[in-house]
Design goal:
Length: 403
């Protein structure tokens, strides 16, 4: 038995915010389907349970929301976006927008994305230091979002600031802050405006926004307001979680310099190395569902109306699925990971994220094969929902040689 008291498990508890992984391990071993009474929610900790429940549209619904501000603190009402729809309406709308995020289109944009990365590195390589997020990962993420979805490139800085305010947290405040709620309203207004500005477009869709404008749900076109709510999902996913994945990848490859050297010598391993980074340090701590029909899971009886947390990072460290899961290994072959979710609501932008991450790591390691990370100066978000760094200072020899 572990020394962890599972009665203390609460995603907002200070000890969990400090380091959730000991709790995840204890949950997997002792209480894999665990009731958190304070929030009237179940925490699902094992890989297989999360994987299977993610495909179960009979007993679990997303219509009441999928993240803590909707189902735990209930700070804001659930939006009618893709993440909050069930089949069959979800299936039809997702099928309409999916081609904009599928491998064929993503691969066609690789030269453009590589150009974004090269431009960023050119801007700092002679300095001998940079912020892997602020000078590289964040910039590329927003530019890729404008490319993928159709957000105006000139709004990139505003978009980054808007998302940061939306996800901001304050010590002593559980969940969203007043600033976050205000930013949410501002974000909806901004995205509604983008939909309105494209409303007069005729002809084939030129952006993913146009696809939403031409789509129908239950026989009706979507309003600007509803399209704005769909775009919230794409905006936050594209600009907030990916830079955190990139930052921890940069950190792990500095920590395991021998594995970094392998990637430098063998760039063809980069995609597999990135997959291990995605498994090892997933930023999204959980997404949620609501029980729509009583179901037995892990020996527990889940009742209608109760919410469920899928603890993805816990599943990604489950030794029932992965050999020695706490070991970082770029040679690991993982046929299944939970870093993009699974089932009906698998991340729409997964192929973009995989390409973006691979190109970033390839170019960083090609241009700056040796760098050091200043973890003492790094800054980290300390939240229940999306964990990770907001700043990751690196140093290297000016021009890109060994530091």
């Amino acid at each position: 038995m572990s020394a962890i008291d599972l009665a203390e498990y609460d995603p907002y508890a200070e000890v969990v915010l400090d380091d959730p992984y000991p709790f995840y391990r204890a949950l997997r071993d002792e209480s894999p389907v665990h009731f958190v009474e304070k929030w009237n929610t179940w925490a699902i900790a094992r890989f297989e349970d999360i994987w299977n429940a993610s495909m179960d549209n009979e007993h679990f619904t997303a219509e009441q929301g999928s993240s803590p501000q909707y189902l735990l603190t209930k700070t804001i009402p659930a939006l009618p976006n893709l993440n909050h729809m069930d089949p069959p309406s979800h299936t039809k709308l997702r099928a309409a927008v999916a081609p904009w995020f599928m491998p064929r289109r993503v691969r066609s944009l690789e030269p453009t994305i590589r150009g974004y990365v090269t431009d960023c590195i050119d801007n700092f390589i002679d300095r001998g230091h940079a912020d892997a997020i602020g000078d590289l990962g964040q910039i590329v993420a927003v530019r890729v979002a404008t490319l993928a979805v159709g957000f105006p490139e000139e709004d990139a800085d505003y978009i980054v600031d808007l998302v940061k305010r939306f996800l901001s947290r304050e010590e002593g405040t559980v969940g969203m802050t007043e600033t976050g709620v205000e930013a949410f309203g501002e974000m909806i207004g901004y995205l509604e405006g983008l939909a309105k500005s494209r409303r007069d477009h005729t002809g084939p869709p030129e952006t993913a926004i146009d696809v939403f404008l031409q789509a129908e749900v239950n026989g009706e076109r979507l309003s600007n307001e509803v399209i704005g709510q769909h775009l919230v999902l794409l905006l936050v996913g594209a600009t907030e979680t990916f830079p955190k994945v990139f930052a921890t990848s940069v950190m792990r490859l500095a920590e395991y310099a021998d594995q970094r050297a392998e990637l430098v010598a063998n760039p063809e391993l980069t995609a597999q190395g990135l997959r291990e980074c995605l498994r090892y340090d997933m930023p999204t701590q959980f997404l949620m569902r609501t029980v729509s029909k009583p179901v037995e899971l892990g020996g527990q009886s889940l009742q209608t109306g109760e919410s469920v947390m899928f603890l993805y990072p816990s599943g990604n460290r489950d030794d029932r699925e992965f050999d020695d899961p706490d070991r970082f290994d770029i040679h690991r072959v993982s046929p299944r990971i939970l870093s993009f979710g699974h089932g009906t609501h698998r991340c729409l932008g997964a192929f973009f994220a995989e390409l973006e991450g691979r190109v970033l790591l390839e170019e960083l390691l090609r241009r700056i094969p040796e760098y050091t990370v200043d973890l003492d100066a790094a800054q980290r978000d300390r939240t229940e929902f999306i964990r990770g760094f907001t700043s990751m200072p690196i140093a290297f020899e000016p021009g890109g040689g060994a530091s």
